[in-house]
Design a protein that fits this description.
134 residues, alpha+beta, 4 helices, 37% helix, globular
């Protein structure tokens, strides 16, 4: 496998996509999220401080590898979370790895739903509660 070293892409000022596999693997190891089986596609979510990380692993030889989305301070940057949910919806509609992408989208949608709870947990200033419809 050839490691991907392309630079991260900042979709917004708080939403990043990276395919830098060394960085992704380092994060997975550091946060005890490294998969043990590389024969299955995976969607992995974890927190680094108040940032949400979503790692997708694709197992098929044609597109094998990792990609990671990072949403900085996700509990207050719900618009960026909605954008990520919409990006994943687009991938689902296109038929790409539908099962694993649906799993990832479900995780993101759950975090959007729980954003107010996380803001309280993180001691963030209460914002006007909105019902986010992504």
């Amino acid at each position: 496998m050839v490691m991907n070293t392309e630079q991260p892409v900042w979709i917004t000022s708080n939403l990043c996509l990276t395919r830098q596999e060394v960085t992704i693997i380092d994060h997975l190891v550091d946060y005890n999220e490294m998969p043990k089986d590389f024969n299955q596609d995976r969607a992995i979510t974890f927190f680094v401080g108040e940032d949400l990380h979503l790692v997708l692993y694709f197992s098929e030889q044609a597109d094998r590898g990792f990609q990671m989305y990072i949403v900085r301070d996700f509990s207050v940057n719900v618009d960026d979370m909605c954008l990520l949910s919409n990006l994943l919806s687009h991938l689902i509609r296109s038929g790409y790895k539908q099962h694993i992408i649906e799993n990832a989208k479900g995780r993101i949608d759950q975090m959007i739903y729980m954003a107010g709870t996380f803001r309280a947990l993180f001691g963030k200033k209460a914002t006007e509660e909105e019902e986010f419809m992504c």
